[in-house]
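Board notes, transcribed. Complex of a protein with nicotinamide-adenine-dinucleotide.
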Amino acid sequence: MAQLLVTGGAGYIGSHLVLDLLLAGHDVVVVDDLSTGHHLALTRVAELAGRGCRFVHADIADVATVASALDGVDAVFHLAAFKLVTESMVAPERYFRNNVAGTAALLEAMVRAGVTRLVYSSSAAVYGPQPDAPISEDAQLNPESPYGVSKAQGETMLSWMCARRGWAATSLRYFNPVGTHHSGRIGQPQRDAAALAPRVLNALQHADQPLTVYGTDWPTPDGTCLRDYIHIADLNRAHLLALQVLLPGQHGIFNVGSGRPHSVREVLASCRRVTGREVPTTDGPRRDGDMARSTADASRFHAATGFIATGTLDDMLASAWTWAAHNPAGYAT
Ligand SMILES: NC(=O)c1ccc[n+]([C@@H]2O[C@H](COP(=O)([O-])OP(=O)(O)OC[C@H]3O[C@@H](n4cnc5c(N)ncnc54)[C@H](O)[C@@H]3O)[C@@H](O)[C@H]2O)c1
């Protein structure tokens, strides 16, 4: 049992992680400024876990407050960030300040508090368009958005902290997390319209807002893009395993995906199976910067930890639908 600090613990992935850490017997401190997260998520986590975490309402840029929250903490999960690619294209400076400068401030607070172990939420967005799929961690990084750049810069800072200060860090490059806790009590608010799953569910609930399928002429079996989706429960397991591969002086970088490609049409078919309803769609042109196929070579994390993602697309969409159906206005209900 350890004392763990989760930045961004009131967000979609963070709230699920906090729940699993509490259920695993750890004590948890959450630092979150609630810029996109919800305190109600942590209230519900406490109900599900039978006990709560300590909540510190603060910006990670507030070095003094974060350093004090780190007192007695064994390791940090750093999830706090802005995450919308399209928004980062419009206001890159927000992403550099929050994701890059915010991460630098967190590192400073950790130095002050003497905490040297960190698991970092990175993203497949660091890769950008790649000639090959599946994508291995050794691929040349080619981020095409300020968001992807900000995540890559976070990784670079961690490499230096490990090299120069002997820290132990693990960066997990997530590929498209989907799904929620089976209770449907915590989840991903639909406003996160950039990801496919919330957009699909939104279209199911609002017949006047059909899902646009961006490109039906890609060189794939059904003409739509292929992506790698991972169940949030698998992602949580990956975080717990990441703690076990923290080695002083080393920065481990791992893809976390299922390794299985699914097309947009397969996602729609899965949604039809688990909800019994047809998702209204319209076909649109390809989007700039999109690629036909993006899947993880998940072999490095498997070799290091034995991790295999087991959640199926149907599992992911069924749980996401349970959440969406019970919380049509997200945490505003
Ligand atoms: N959801 C995805 O599809 C996805 C994919 C790849 C990587 N990631 C990464 O995973 C992490 C979590 O993503 P999410 O989907 O849970 O997003 P989210 O927006 O639901 O959660 C982010 C949380 O961080 C908090 N936060 C943001 N800036 C903060 C700051 N300066 N100080 C304190 N708290 C702050 C927000 O209030 C929120 O609770 C992010 O780092 C994101 O880049 C997410």
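The pocket of nicotinamide-adenine-dinucleotide is lined by residues 7-8, 10-14, 31-37, 59-61, 79-81, 83, 98, 102, 121, 123, 174, 176-177, 195 (CB under 6 Å). The chain has eleven helices and 14 strands.
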